[in-house]
């Protein structure tokens, strides 16, 4: 039976019963919280009166930003003005019954707002407090604003992509998304610790640490090596994108088995039997010769035809547009995409979740679209004990929306 995201028992989700207050904005913090929602946590997105700026990013969707929808699935949304005493008091009341709080303020900001770890730990000693920063909590860069492509440029990611002297951005916010995964992992580990000890924790995640962690295989400098030692992990030559009669095809044929299959299926059997090319290192050293032969052979078919012919004998993929993924048979088989109904944006398809549920649906939260601005303020405050008159007064004061 294929995986499903149709829920059968909400209580079976791994983080069922865990409440997360998400004060973060943009991508890294919010998507880390979306991953917690995928695991069953009740994630409440807390926005300021101006809203998460990601809502305002360019989008062909008139009613809501595409990026905002994509990184805030599974959450409820409220609006609080933490600069007002009444708004801060509401947050502190929510913190008292929460399990996790996440923010992505620069280190100097939480203390100024009165939401630093020590202040909120006094309210709830069992709180897991997660701070997502650009550069960490100490050092000369601690209060600089950090963004994905700024960190890419700083940490060598861009320099490794383009040719020498021509750094290139990796589009897709790769540092943000990796930092989000670290956030989800760190918070879940802190919750496990709390289950054993009863104590809350401070979890620090930074874009700088995420960008360097992504390069662990390169970030090794032996004492005897010069500064400009070759650090690229790419095997070179055969492995990479190649033009075909129609479209581009990515190939990976590093093992002897895959190299033999590639040569057989492309009519280059003489290369498979040649001892000059019988290791990855030798093939990289002779890339100029081998790539010319390979690309000539690949002109016989389109990328999609080669993908079908190679099957599971040669690791490969035709270069596709993301639009092709919505109905890709493998994506459909794994139930990775689902349909959402949004109060403003209407119906849309999007990622169902980052984790696989059991075939019966246990452990899979019901799909929930990203919240409309302030959509659940009344519901969440009512759960916290604020009656209708109190909520009206808070609205009139501008503390909530």
Rounded to an integer in angstroms, the radius of gyration calculated over CA atoms is: 25 Å
Per DSSP E runs of 2 or more residues, the count of β-strands stands at 11
Question: What is the 3D form?
Answer: elongated
Task: Tell me the strand percentage band.
Answer: 5-15%
Short description:
This protein has 401 residues and is α/β, with parallel strands linked by helices.
Task: Give the secondary structure arrangement, pairings included.
Elements: E1 19-22, H1 28-38, E2 42-47, H2 66-71, E3 75-79, H3 85-96, E4 100-103, H4 108-113, H5 117-123, E5 128-133, H6 148-155, H7 157-161, H8 174-197, E6 201-206, H9 207-213, E7 240-243, E8 248-251, H10 256-265, H11 269-272, H12 280-285, H13 287-298, H14 303-310, E9 316-318, H15 329-333, E10 337-342, E11 346-351, H16 377-383, H17 388-396
Parallel strand pairs: 1-2, 1-4, 2-3, 4-5, 5-6
Antiparallel strand pairs: 7-8, 8-9, 10-11
Helix pairs in contact: 1-8, 6-9, 8-9
Task: Explain what you see.
- By secondary structure, the protein is an alpha/beta fold.
- Helix content is 37%, strand content 13%.
- β7 and β8 (248-251) form a beta hairpin.
- It starts with 18 loop residues before the first strand and ends in a 5-residue tail after the last helix.
Notable characteristics:
single chain, 401 residues, alpha/beta, six-stranded parallel sheet, 13% strand
